[in-house]
Structures are given as C-alpha cells and as structure tokens.
Design brief:
Layout: E1 11-15, H1 19-31, E2 35-39, H2 42-52, E3 56-60, H3 68-78, E4 84-89, H4 93-98, E5 106-110, H5 114-128, H6 133-136, H7 147-160, E6 166-170, H8 176-185, E7 194-198, H9 204-212, E8 213-214, E9 226-227, H10 229-232, E10 237-241, H11 248-260, E11 262-263, E12 272-273, E13 277-282, H12 286-291, H13 297-303, E14 306-310, H14 320-335, E15 341-342, H15 344-352, H16 358-372, E16 377-378, H17 380-389, H18 397-415, H19 420-427, H20 431-440
Parallel strand pairs: 1-2, 1-3, 3-4, 4-5, 6-13, 6-14, 7-10, 10-13, 15-16
Antiparallel strand pairs: 8-9, 11-12
The structure holds adenosine-5'-triphosphate and magnesium ion (MG).
Length: about 450
C-alpha cells in the first residue's frame, strides 16, 4: 500500500513544553512532508484537536501542567482510535510502560534520530489506516471463525503496533505461542528476532544465565562468555513462556530488567541496555500464584499490563470445522497426498467432542486419522478411535514434571516408611523444604508410617 507521502499531507499535532525540542521535531517532520501543528501544553493540544484534526499526535511524557499520560487519556476519551506517540526519557520509560493500560500508545525513547522518528510516524499512520502489510495480514497463521477470536485478534493487532507488555493466558494447546508470534510478526519489530524461552523447562541455575547471559568464569563450567536471550532478542520480541513457573529468585531479577531495560549477565557488574518487547504466557493462574506467594505481585503487574485470554476450544466450537480443514490441508500438502475429508457424521462428532488438549489435540487427531485412513473420506468410527487413542493432551512439561515429582516423593516416603527427615536427606533437601514440597502435592507422610504394605498407586 502507498506510504504516506508529501502529497497526502498527513497532519501531526506535536506537543512539548520544550521550545528547542518542538522546533527540532517540527523541522524533521516538515522535511519529511508532514503538516505540523506545534503546541506547548496539553490543554492547548486538547483545544487544537477539533480544529486541526490531526491524523496523529506526538506528545512528550513529562511536561509542565498536564502530563503526556493525562493528555493521552483525554484524547482517547474523545477519539479512542487516535494514534499517539509518546516521547519519554530513558529514566521514565518504565513508568510509561506501566501506565500504558490507559490507552494504546507508542513510546519513543529520547534521544532519538530523525530517521527513527519519521519511520515510526509513517509506520503508525499506516497501521492506523489499516493499510500496512502486517495490518492486513495480521494473524494469518491463526485459523478461526468465532466472535471471541475475532475480537481477540482485533485487540492484538492494535497492541502489535505498540511496545506494550502483554500477558497471554490460556489452557494448554490453545495457541498462546502462536498468538505471541503473530503479535511479533505484526509489529515494527518483525524483521528482528523473536525469541521464546520456556521458563519451566530449564533448571533454575541455568535459567538466569540463559536469560541474562554470563561472563567467562562466572561459575564452574562457564568456560566462555555467554550472551543471554534478552540480548539475543534485542530490538525484537522475547516470549517468556510458562512464566508462572519461574523461580522466585529469578523473578526479582526479571523485575529489575523490566524496570531498567538493562540486563546484568551473571558475574558482571555492568548492566547492558536492551530494547525488547516482552510478552509472557502462562497456563497457570498467576493471580492465584500471587496469593500463595509463588509469584511476586510487583512482577505480576509489570507483566500483566495488558492481558489477552485465549478461551479453550470448547468455548469456541465454531472454530473446530475450519481448524479441521486447515490441518487436513496441511497434512495433505506436507505428505504430498490428496487431501482427505471427514465424513459429515465425523465432523459432527468432532465438533461436539470435549477437547481438553485444545488445538494441539485436534491437530494430533487429524494427523492420526490421516495416517490410519486409506480412503479419501475419514469415517466416524476412525474419528472416534483417534480421539480415544489420542491422549487427552500431550502433557505439558510442567505437568509431567509435577507428576514426576509427586511419584518421586511418594517413593522416597515409601522407602523411609514415612520418616520425613530420612526422606528429606535422601532427596537432598532440608526438612523445611521437603515439608513444603509434600504440602504442595498434598501428600501426608503419616500415611506411609504404618508397617502396612503400601497399596498400589495413590
Ligand atoms: N487458531 C489456530 N490456528 C492454527 N493453528 C493453531 C491455532 N492455535 C494453535 N495452533 C497450533 O496449535 C499448536 C499449539 O499451539 P501453541 O503451541 O501456540 O499453544 P500453547 O497455548 O502455547 O500451548 P502450551 O500451553 O501447551 O504451551 C501449535 O502447533 C500452533 O501452531
Ligand atoms: Mg506454549
């Protein structure tokens, strides 16, 4: 689509109480072909909006009188879709991010260059007009028909234009990672890295160094310097997956990164500035985690600036049929075979089936059906069998770990006849920690204390 050009004369309302800044930015924008109306306060800006009818507002965050955030909320009360770019110093960016739930705005950090400003203005205008490529194609990998997902994607598309921190919640297999990826792809950062890390999959000691990096010799085994994922994601997007499973000690460090936009590698005294968009995802209830002190409240608020919830498939059954078709097509193309179809009774059956494993489970069922059917049409009986054979959900790593931990605890208690101190020693934990683990799993050591043979499986 056409870029805003001189001939289109986009109008930009520029708000800053610093005279030098105003004249510098004005000259940059005019050079680039924009019509600029510079004003020196928020109240002037409000008065000008109806007269000048800008396509975009650029405002400083910290100003005498009305500050940028107040101005933003006033503008959005009148014109909810008005694109606003907020300028802020490095020192204020953290507060700015926190305040972004007030509205959709973009932040640009000062000092900034002419190119940066002009590129961002053009991008924001294109996006607002729904003209950008990424705007039109937003979420094209995501298949849906339901009203719920339609609305969610509309919101996500607006958010993609900003750097706002997002928390994606939803059960296993509902497409959290797919959504995070779509937001990245639809953002100005799309040509920069998208880095996803599963916080549940990495042992605590390694996670810090994975995220923030380490210096050579920072700990035994750290033979070389290692760049962390935050640095690897610089200028792009980082997805902190299963963030609810992040150990408390690291939560503090993550919080600091989100406050300072700088990381400190293990063994280093120096903070390294990073420019990353943070998206986190969880299938656990973080609020519950906060209540039970497993998750820091301050970090929760920092991550949950804007929440996006992916409903389970059972709450958006309209999506089932298009998803079935999508995966049938994909399997056919991949295997270079004629595309199969489900018999109408099979579709009916699948459309009303429970899907505890959501889209991932549905995808697996389609795979299984295609693999096991020789004919073009997949019959009802095959769909039923596939759903029966296909474990409700391939367990998440976290669930698998929890199951393992539970059976491990049970086995050491068995071995020690429910003697907690002995069991703790075997497990290499102190008594207090061990008790805590037992409590987490609702295991009563007393039950193992009798000499009776432990009965099979609890
Ligand atoms: N709406 C959708 N359209 C097409 N494919 C989808 C959709 N939602 C999810 N998928 C696909 O389903 C699979 C599972 O999705 P994803 O990994 O994003 O789920 P998740 O919520 O992150 O799951 P988990 O909690 O297990 O990590 C992926 O292969 C993804 O590409
Ligand atoms: Mg995931």
């Amino acid at each position: 689509m056409a870029e805003p050009t001189k001939s289109m004369q986009y109008r930009v309302l520029l708000v800053d109480d610093d005279r030098d800044m105003i004249s510098l930015l004005s000259s940059w924008l005019k050079d680039a072909g924009f019509e600029v109306d510079p004003v020196m306060s928020g109240s002037e800006a409000i008065a000008r909006i109806d007269v000048f009818r800008p396509h975009l507002v650029i405002t400083d965050l910290v100003m005498q009188g009305m500050d940028g955030m107040t101005l933003l909320s006033k503008i959005h009360r009148q014109n909810p879709l008005m694109p606003v770019i907020m300028l802020s110093g490095k020192a204020q960016i953290a507060d700015a991010v926190k305040a972004m739930h007030l509205g959709i705005a973009e932040f640009l950090t000062k000092p900034l260059t002419k190119d940066e400003l002009v590129a961002r203005v053009r991008y924001t205008l294109r996006l607002a007009a729904g003209e950008s490529d990424s705007g039109a194609n937003f979420g094209k990998e995501i298949i849906y028909r339901s009203e719920k997902i339609t609305q969610l994607l509309e919101q996500a598309k607006l958010l993609a234009a900003t750097d706002v921190t997002i928390l994606i919640t939803g059960a296993t297999g509902t497409g959290k990672e797919a959504l995070a990826k779509a937001i990245h792809e639809g953002s100005a950062r799309k040509d920069q890295p998208f880095v996803a890390i599963n916080c549940a999959a990495i042992p605590e000691q390694l996670l810090e160094s994975e995220l923030f990096g380490h210096e050579k010799g920072a700990f035994t085994g750290a033979q070389t310097k290692h760049e962390g994922l935050f640095q690897a994601a610089n200028k792009g997007t980082i997805l902190l997956d299963e963030v609810g499973d992040m150990p408390l000690s690291l939560q503090v460090k993550l919080l600091r990164v989100l406050q300072d936009f700088a990381v400190r590698p293990v063994g280093s005294v120096r903070g390294i500035p990073v420019n990353v968009r943070v998206i986190s995802a969880t299938n656990t209830d973080l609020e519950q985690g906060v209540k039970s002190s497993r998750f820091r409240e301050d970090l929760y608020y920092r991550l949950n600036v804007v929440p996006l919830h992916l409903p389970p498939l059972g709450e958006r059954r309209e999506d089932i049929q298009p998803l079935l078709n999508h995966f049938l097509k994909r399997v056919g193309q991949r295997d270079n075979k004629k595309r199969k179809r489900f018999a109408p009774e099979a579709v009916e059956y699948l459309a009303s089936a429970p899907w505890p494993g959501n889209i991932r489970q549905l995808m697996n069922v389609v795979e299984l059906c295609c693999a096991l059917t020789n004919t073009d049409i997949i019959p009802l009986a095959m769909a039923q069998k596939a759903l029966r054979d296909q474990p409700a959900h391939v367990q998440t790593l976290k669930d698998a770990k929890e199951d393992f931990e539970r059976s491990y605890l049970v086995s050491v208690l068995r071995v020690t006849n429910g003697h907690v101190s002995h069991a703790a020693r075997l497990a290499g934990r102190n008594r207090t920690e061990f008790y805590k683990l037992l409590k987490q799993h609702h295991i009563e050591p007393e039950e193992f204390r009798t000499s009776r043979q432990a009965t099979e499986e609890d």
